[in-house]
UniProtKB/TrEMBL annotation:
Pfam families: Nramp. It is a multi-pass membrane protein. It is found in: Membrane. Coiled coil: none annotated. This is NRAMP family divalent metal transporter. Signal peptide: none annotated.
Length: 410
């Protein structure tokens, strides 16, 4: 078998994992991890590592339940758990609200970066963020209406990969202190305002409740059968491991650039300083278009999450060209203008949205613990003792981070 063929075969085996890396490592991850590194160095690395381990556990669990039962997450919760209908509706509503906040923050960051990109090209050229938002919204709605997003997504993915590679290059350029990285594995909470919310945001952007529900949908679309259970575990490992590597690099780069220069991530334009070691306008453009591409490629799944979840709950086919997808997707795009009317800066709004996502984690952990142990659904594929312990630890972790988030929210 040729090398090219081997690569294609490997990528086909880990499809959902790659999709979720693209969905999860976006503007939210860059902003949250950069804020953690800028404000606290590598001292919160432990939270990232735990989040990625627990992400792997829940991804395997949700994938296993979906494969064995043949049904997606919300449909299983609704039909096979006591009070499942109410719980499924709560999860659906909470995820949609959380994604709307994220959408506003992501669009705010994207528009401010594009505005700065225009200024770098020509110092006299000024365009309002509202105008940039309108252009993005109109373009995405056209793509949504005609269902022509695939080729555009490939282009954005290429740019995002370039940004990811740039983060890895800058990671080695800033010559991180590996002793500090090892120290970051020891749990500690910085004694400064906003630390609890930041930890919750790191959990929310990595061990995201939305990821597990969406994973169930993607695994279902992949039509994996019981014979693919090992493939599903490998796929989950690749996804969680890549999230850890990329997010860790972003945190270390922020620690070696923003923190080293005495800056904390308070404004969108502070993000540009992350690629300062590369130098020049080229570095700024790579970061601007990388983060903007990550933002736009993330916006599309976000505006589709409401119709996706409704279809999942109802057990109906997911048709991107249906009126449900077009109407709710268009409404989601209109809500992305919300950042224009809020006093909260886009980075702070995005961190808040990720912290809100962490509060939903217990609600998606408990049902999968019940479902994966039901013999009537799983047969001989019920959870092992080790899997049950792992899901139990995720539940405790979710409750603790929810508590931390609520303390800072109050």
């Amino acid at each position: 078998m040729s090398i090219k063929r081997k690569i294609i075969t490997f990528l086909s085996l880990i499809g959902p994992g790659l999709f979720l890396i693209g969905y999860n490592i976006g503007t939210g991850s860059v902003t949250t991890m950069a804020k953690a590194g800028a404000g606290n160095g590598m001292s919160l690395l432990w939270a990232l590592v735990l989040s990625c381990i627990f992400t792997y556990i829940l991804m395997v669990a949700y994938g296993q339940v979906t494969i064995v039962s043949g049904k997606t997450a919300l449909l299983n919760i609704k039909n096979n758990i006591r009070y499942g209908k109410s719980l499924a509706l709560y999860i659906m509503a909470a995820l949609i609200v959380g994604e709307v906040f994220a959408l506003m923050g992501i669009m705010g960051i994207a528009t401010e970066l594009l505005q700065e990109g225009a200024r770098l090209i020509d110092g006299t050229f000024v365009i309002s963020t509202a105008s940039v938002t309108a252009i993005i919204v109109l373009a995405l709605f056209v793509l949504l209406y005609y269902g022509k997003y695939e080729m555009f997504e490939k282009l954005l993915t290429t740019i995002v990969l370039l940004m990811g590679l740039s983060f890895i290059i800058v990671f080695f350029m800033v010559k991180p202190n590996f002793q500090e990285i090892w120290k970051g594995l020891i749990p500690s909470i910085p004694q400064k305002p906003g630390s609890f919310e930041l930890i919750a945001a790191m959990v929310g952007t990595t061990c995201s409740a939305a990821v597990f529900i969406v994973r169930s949908i993607v695994v279902s679309e992949k039509k994996w059968a019981i014979k693919n259970l090992k493939t599903e575990k490998r796929d989950a490992f690749v996804s969680a491991f890549m999230m850890l590597i990329l997010s860790g690099c972003i945190m270390a780069v922020a620690a070696g650039t923003l923190r080293a220069s005495g800056k904390e991530l308070e404004t969108t334009l502070h993000l540009i300083s992350l690629f300062e070691p590369i130098g020049g306008k080229l570095a700024s453009f790579i970061l601007i278009f990388g983060i903007t591409s990550a933002a736009i490629s993330t916006i599309f799944p976000i505006i589709l999450i409401a119709p996706w979840l409704i279809s999942d709950y109802a057990g109906k086919p997911r048709n991107i060209k249906s009126p449900l997808f077009r109407v709710l997707g268009g409404l989601g795009l209109l809500l992305s203008f919300g950042a224009q009317f809020m006093e909260m800066r886009p980075p702070a709004l995005l961190v808040f949205s990720q912290a809100f996502q962490a509060c939903i984690l217990p609600a998606v952990t408990l049902p999968v613990l019940i479902l994966i142990n039901k013999k009537s659904i799983m047969g001989k594929h019920t959870a092992s003792n080790l899997m049950n312990v792992g899901i139990g630890l995720v539940m405790i972790f979710g409750l603790v981070t929810t508590y931390l988030a609520i303390i800072d929210f109050i």
